[in-house]
Design brief:
CATH superfamily: YlxR-like
Order of helices and strands: EEEEEHHH
Distance between the termini: 44 Å
Largest sheet: 3 strands, antiparallel
Number of domains: 1
Helix content: 25-40%
Length: 105
């Protein structure tokens, strides 16, 4: 007698965007990590530290930076240099968006 095991396909990890609150595949979001020296790493996939995820849409970045949402998720306050680096990344996102729209999924 032969026993056949049926296995389910692995599902991609889901994460919640800090800006819009939508749950998406982890691969579709940008991770921001607060490192041990209180510095920020943008796009740190496997870097250890407290992290938060944001959609690559400029609207989500603006919402996350507007109030204290991102600071709450990272459990630390953002310095002026950190905020400037995030705004610089936001401007690079806006330049790469075709006609101001991002096509996801």
């Amino acid at each position: 007698m032969v026993t056949i095991r049926m296995t389910r396909p692995k599902q991609a990890p889901q994460r919640t965007c800090v800006g819009c609150g939508a749950r998406k595949d982890q691969r579709l979001l940008v991770r921001i990590v607060r490192g041990p020296d209180s510095g920020l790493i943008i796009g740190g996939g496997r870097v250890s530290g407290r992290g938060a995820y944001i959609c690559p849409a400029s609207e989500c970045w603006k919402r996350a930076l507007k109030g204290t949402r991102l600071e709450h998720c990272l459990r630390s306050s953002l310095t002026i240099e950190n905020r400037a680096a995030l705004l610089q990344y936001l401007s690079s996102l806006q330049e790469s968006e075709p006609n101001g729209k991002i096509h996801t999924e």
